[in-house]
Write a structure and sequence with these properties.
Layout: H1 3-24, H2 28-48, H3 57-69, H4 76-94, H5 102-122
Helix pairs in contact: 1-2, 1-5, 2-3, 2-4, 2-5, 3-4, 4-5
């Protein structure tokens, strides 16, 4: 594991922790947003292992799908979860307050936890 990967993995874990706190406080829009960023940090961690770095969030998502999901290095569902989390983040960040339901927020936070577990297993 490179120092950059370690940093992103730690940042993802802290973001997951933050998302859980926000969820407990009923701040579903913000919990979903934090969960998305945790997933994004994990995608970056995977890409750093390939010496790939992108400043555009869309490029990170696309390259993660291309290099990891489409090749079977990670289950394709994780690319889909990242895309779905991005949609929720847009709703939570740019929509009206309470654009993300508590069920949606809880689900994306749970998916984020799965993504963290995957990264901890595969990034060595």
């Amino acid at each position: 594991m490179t120092p950059e990967q370690r940093d992103r993995l730690e940042k993802a874990k802290l973001s997951l922790r933050s998302a859980r706190l926000l969820l407990r406080e009923g701040m579903d829009d913000f919990a979903a947003s934090r969960a998305y960023y945790a997933m994004l940090y994990l995608a970056q961690a995977f890409l750093f292992g390939e010496r790939q770095e992108y400043s555009s969030l869309a490029a990170v998502i696309a390259k993660f799908g291309e290099l990891f999901a489409k090749t079977g290095r990670v289950p394709t569902k994780f690319h889909r979860l990242l895309i779905d989390a991005e949609d929720l983040r847009h709703a939570g960040d740019y929509g009206q307050i309470h654009s993300v339901s508590s069920d949606q927020a809880r689900e994306v936070v749970d998916h984020d936890a799965e993504f963290v577990e995957l990264a901890e297993r595969l990034i060595t």
